[in-house]
Amino acid sequence: MELDQAEKAKAQKMHRVGILMNLLMGISLSLALSLIGSLTSGHFTLIAWLVSFAASTVLSLLIGFLLPVRKCALGLCAKLNLRERSLPSLAVESFISDIFYTPLITLLMVFLGWKSAVSHGAQIPFLPMYLKSLALTFLCGYVLIFVLQPLYLRLILGKEKVVE
User: Fold this and answer.
1) Under a CB-based contact definition with an 8 Å cutoff, are residues 153 and 21 in contact?
2) How much is the pTM?
3) Backbone dihedral angles phi then psi of residue 43, each to the nearest 5 degrees
């Protein structure tokens, strides 16, 4: 019975770790990608950036809470026989996270920018605009995830007093 209590407590801590990781990574990724997108558009405005940041934050949090990103990443790492928290494992996990998050966030941000430009009379084809932006944000997203994920995890595990 005491073991069940300990397991429940650990499960609750790990659940909190997951929620905090989702919040920190979602906000960080959204902040960076919306800033990159707004700055590279050639027409940066604070309002457009704030709208892009808010929309992409909501989307990234939904992705993190609704899609099994971590489960897919860990499953692939296991199939590749990668040791958890090793550099190769981190590289694969970062790539899987990037695949889940970046195309959708970029799609939303580019759509918002494209819709705004078209409403002001611009005749810009959507697909080339999206693909150009996706190439840049995919690379930036990967680097951000690769760097921030282990830092945030270490920070949260220490805060939650979870023994690794």
Assistant:
1) yes
2) 0.88
3) -135, 60
